Amino acid sequence: MRPLLCAAALTLLVCSADAADMARPAKLSDKEIADGWLLLLDGETTFGWKALNDSKWTVSLGMIAPQAGSKDPLLVTTTAFGDFELHAEYQVKNDDKAKLSINCDKTGKTAGNDSTIQLRSFGNDWIQLHLTAKGGKIEEERSSQGGNTFSSTKVKVGDPPKPMPKAIGGHIALAGEGVVFRNIKLKPLGLQSIFNGKDLTGWKEHPGKKSKFSVQDGVLNIKDGPGDLQTEKALGDFVLQLECISNGKHLNSGVFFRCRPGEYQQGYEAQIHNGFGEQPKEYTIEDFDPETNKLLGTRKEKYLALDYGTGAIYRRQPARKQMAKDNEWFGMTVVAQGRHIGVWVNGVMVTDWTDNRPAKDNARNGYRAEAGPISLQGHDPTTDLSFRNFRVMELKEAEKAKKE
Description:
The protein is mainly beta. It is built from three helices and 28 strands. Strand 9 and strand 10 (137-146) form a beta hairpin. The protein is globular.
């Protein structure tokens, strides 16, 4: 029996007796992780999303739906993306309307109706939606699901493809009533390699340090430390994806970005440290006013990460959960756009942080908007890490694009 959205509730309800089997928690395969797919919904929380219009959303058994009584339910990603593939599954009641919008601003507003996909019902099945937003166009395909088998009936929308507003780097929004979503994932498109797998062309080593950087069989190795290897190219707003392995227990390294060119490790740091404990560790978090950028105060929060954790923004925001293990390759994605930074490890978002500090020319001291190199850290004499598959896509903020 298939799970149905109960007619009497707008809260997430699954009515079938075998709901636990049919409602699957979100998970990516090893191949999807290697290909760069990201979970937008972790199936447990609304982390990475912001509910607007005072709406409330419930997450259970890998699914998400607006709660009963929410007026104009609206849920928007905190991260803005460029070109991408998007996969989602949904179920909607016949008499209700729901929609998915792309290229929104942070309030869920779009530049036009061409960025909104109406999610209408095709019966009581789960509907699989696959959407591609690339080069200013949207292509969409849907298929219905009966049990575990997808039917051969497909509904194509956008032929010719819909035009998309030119602004690059938009948010994604879910809206409507009587709708339930699951398995929402996204793959950034248009990324270009910044490592040729043969040598360090395009990179330069900071002089006078101890780290040893080498390339072998398509892998960039870092041993010993301290040291710093920087890209010659400067990047400001971007999507960065890479793979890394820590060849030892709880080794320390990091991926720096928006660095001050030519200086030693002066930028934001996406931490690499796979140590997580059984007992929470207390961290001090600073809160800044998003309008005035003045310090409002500090608070104490507890995390299992031993040293902020892999995927954290070091010294700013610890990683919320462990998604990488020592001696195993893992994927990392960093999306930096304006003040907002999101980090995914093995396809799961572990850090969602907005830098509301006053503007400075050094990210160690405040918000840095200027482009700068990406750099890899040799932390100390125990450093022994390897990297591969560096690829990046530059973004520009929607507000900037509108002025051009």
